[in-house]
Write a structure and sequence with these properties.
443 residues, mainly alpha, Growth Hormone, Chain: A, two-stranded antiparallel ribbon, 18 helices
Amino acid sequence: MPPVNSLTMTRSYPPRWLAWCVLALLAAAALMSFVDRFILSLLITPIKDSLHLSDFQIGLLMGPAFAICFAIFGVPIGWLADRANRRTIVAAGIALWSVMTAWCGLAKSFGTLFVARMGVGMGEAALNPCVVSLVSDYFPPTVRARAIGLYMTGAFLGAGSAYIVGGQAVAVIESWPPLTLPIVGTLLSWQVAFLIVAAPAAVLAVLMILVPEPRRNAEPSESHPSPLNGLKHVAANLPAYAGVFLGMSGTTAISASSFWSPALFERAWGWPVERSGTVIGLIILATGIPGANIGGWIADRLTRNGRADGPLITCLIGSIAMAPGFSLYPLMPSGEAAAALLCVAFFGLAVATGVSPAAVGAVSPARFKAGIAGLFFMTINLLGLFLGPPTVGLIADALPGADGLRLALSSTFAVFGIATIAVLWWGLRPFRRMAESVAEADR
């Protein structure tokens, strides 16, 4: 009788305290990535004025400029993470997006700013695929959704902090006179803001080098999987992946379109950026952090109760709560009423997006997790970021004034919200069958 490899019988994981410490550092990286990503939404007005841009061009900077490299490079980085040292890949990505965020602050034309935003996306593409793979090797299946939810908390902390601190900082920085530096020349206040937020990520890049690389919980013969085999796996099980891939693309379009919120509060209700930034940031912190963790708890509870499709059910629950809030808040008669609806909207968004990486992991064998996660993030960001913010800007340009942006946001949110709910509902059955198969092999 041939010897039985111990990995086929049991899975080994690092000490739990170490796993949670590493996860906290990864969550801090997610926080900084969202600060660097969201700061643009607070600088729309000064960037438009100094570079003479249209709303559509601003939408391109928010969406496609970031999405092109973030999405495309996520796939090869994901496959690389299935074969190489993941902590080194993450550290390199953090260093890159820090440098490119600083370059945004040196931009003096639409083209230069567009290229710099592409570089930010390239650096941030390294984070999520590696995290999905690392979590699978640091945590057993029964707590992975909760771990992913805690990681996603960093994203909501970053978004909230970007709005709160960024809004106040932008108000202060805008009162400064232009800054003149050797070689660089004169920098306006919005350019200085980019330089300031770029610095902390460089420290995280150094800390990531100290993170231990965990033992992979894949069979030795499968530890270096072929990217083609991973793509064949997705193609062979396309119905199981289609629901979560397409459904979360709609959620991403809604999330990215919400970058327009500070501009909406300014145009529709006359709120200055320091007020809208503070209010939106507090809403994200108050709803996003508990939402991501509650979503992880719900998914884990469903999984322990025998529902292998628990993560996707949780995504659906969050989307049902999210869609009405986002669709209606731009139409409210006051900023205060709009802010109240945003509380419901961001809570639902956090529940849905907080467990979406766990949903992808639930239907992906261990040897393909990072690669398929990269494909997932490529899909949702190419579709969501390309379709969301530019669509809002295009409609707003066609309908100038505050009402144009209100109608652009409301209609965009409604269309993507309905589509998301329908697709996630359709995908439940094939997702459940595939998740049960993967869970059996993961025991």
